[in-house]
Amino acid sequence: MIERLKDFFQLALTGEPGGRSRRSPEEQLALAATALMIQLARVDNEEDPREIAAIMRSAKEIHGLSEEDSAELLQVAHAEADKATSLYEFTGYLNDHLDHDQKQALLTDIWSVALADEHVDKYEEHLIRRIADLFHLNHREYIECRLRAETRQAAR
């Protein structure tokens, strides 16, 4: 039963049973991170173009993607976010492949998406809190990530 559940979640993330995927591990990490950001952009029922631009910027800066590759990643991440039944499909994969510092850096980037439209909705804040919990980050780390994102936003 446990193996069938693992296969189900792996199928949802990779599109292949048993975790076999045509995507490299780096592509899967980028996809999982971007899909979480898409979920955040959608949580207030409105995908603000500034939030989408922040997601694109993140894809280029963090993953070193070109404009074309970032656009393709965004398109695939939208499809994955549409299919997702929970955040765990993405956070579980990220937890398995990122260390603690990398999870904090990703949460900072997620905060940057929320801050992009200059208004953090209560639903966005709640979703980020849930992501931080699923990443096993404590409240202090959650706040530090927000402050780093705010500092970065002010510098732009």
Overview of the molecule:
By secondary structure, this protein is mainly α. It has one domain (24-155): TerB-like (Orthogonal Bundle), CATH 1.10.3680. The protein contains eight helices and no strands. It is globular, with a radius of gyration of 15 Å. The model has no long low-confidence stretch (mean pLDDT 88).
Brief summary:
The protein has 156 residues and is mostly helical. It has helices at 2-14, 25-42, 49-63, 67-83, 88-97, 100-115, 122-134, 139-155. Helices cover 76% and strands 0% of the residues.
Topology at a glance:
Elements: H1 2-14, H2 25-42, H3 49-63, H4 67-83, H5 88-97, H6 100-115, H7 122-134, H8 139-155
Characteristic key phrases:
156 residues, mainly alpha, TerB-like
For the biggest sheet, the summary is:
none
> What is the CATH-assigned architecture?
Orthogonal Bundle
Assign the CATH superfamily. Answer: TerB-like
Strand content: under 5%
User: What is the tally of beta strands?
Assistant: 0
Structural class: mainly alpha
**What is the CATH top level name?**
Mainly Alpha
Please state the average pLDDT score: 88
CATH topology: TerB-like
- Categorize the overall geometry: globular
Whole-number count of domains: 1
Total helices: the number is 8
